[in-house]
Write a structure and sequence with these properties.
globular, 283 residues, alpha/beta, 6-stranded mixed β-sheet, 8 helices
């Protein structure tokens, strides 16, 4: 197995929304906001090469929305999905599996693209099986008022219409070369891939820990629909992995790709160290 970091670009979100109840006087020291209170975040996906399978985990925001939509998120930087795939010698048609942690637009927007005549939509990965889970699919296709703006019909329904959609069963290990953990705080049944790689365990954190700064228990996004369950999701991961050198892979951290956890003398859990995924190559 080989793993590759896939950068799909950077965007901005309101700092208060991203850090929840934590005061700006604290979080602004971590990821300083601009004059509009917006902070920069990555859309960092992960490519898993395992035998003949090439599995992309999440795919960023995509390119099909109109300028007004993208204007809300201040896209910036030189990274893109295609550039990042090409850097590692791949293209979209090589992807055999498109794994979606959840169906918020910044995680699945690249799933679907305009067709050549811009008369309709088609899968952006024509040779891939798209993976979701039934509980989350049902949640996303019948959205609550709080999340409706994050679940865009054009990102989701064309996947099923293409015939390329399949649902993860159980922990996913019979269908994919890794297992999945389920979280219910951020959204219903968000899936976190748990990957064994070169003697390490790597957890793709999606929006449970969107960045290294969200490891602290109070740092829960205002976007989370069930913040108390987000705390339980964190606790469950800490209980199993706080001191075992498990590696967390951060999807939205603007600079840190990976990090490890450390249990402090007081019994709380904190960030130990950060490093790029490339540091694991050959280890």
């Amino acid at each position: 197995m080989e793993l590759y970091t896939i950068h799909t670009g950077n965007f901005k979100l309101d700092g208060g929304a991203m850090f929840g109840v934590v005061p700006k006087s604290m979080w602004n020291k971590l990821n300083p906001a601009d004059e509009n209170n917006m902070c920069s975040w990555a859309m960092r996906c992960l490519l898993v090469q395992d035998g003949n399978r090439l599995i992309l985990i999440d795919n960023g925001m995509g390119e099909k929305q109109d300028p007004k939509f993208f204007g809300h998120y201040y896209l910036h930087g030189d990274d893109s999905l295609d550039k990042s795939l090409a850097k590692h010698g791949f293209k979209r048609d090589d992807i055999t599996d498109m794994f979606l942690t959840h169906l918020h637009f910044d995680h699945c927007g690249g799933s679907i693209q305009w067709n050549s005549g811009r008369t309709g939509y088609e899968p952006a990965f024509k040779n891939a099986t798209y993976w979701s889970t039934q509980a989350h699919w049902d949640w996303a296709t019948k959205p609550n008022a709080r999340e409706k703006a994050s679940f865009l019909v054009e990102n989701i329904l064309p996947i099923k219409e293409s015939g390329q959609l399949k649902m993860i069963e159980g922990d996913g290990s019979k269908q994919l070369p890794f297992s999945v953990m389920y979280c219910k705080g951020h959204t219903e049944s968000m899936m976190l891939p748990k990957i064994s790689y070169k003697g390490h365990t790597i957890i793709y954190c999606a929006d449970l820990f969107p960045s290294r700064w969200h490891i602290g228990m109070p740092y829960i996004m205002a976007y989370d629909v069930r913040p108390l369950l987000s705390m339980e999701d964190k606790d469950a991961l800490f209980a199993e992995h706080a001191n075992d050198k498990t590696i967390l892979y951060f999807e939205h951290d603007p600079s840190a790709e990976c990090g490890t956890l450390l249990k402090t003398e007081r019994g709380s859990v904190a960030l130990d160290k950060t490093f790029p995924l490339s540091d694991l190559v050959g280890k």
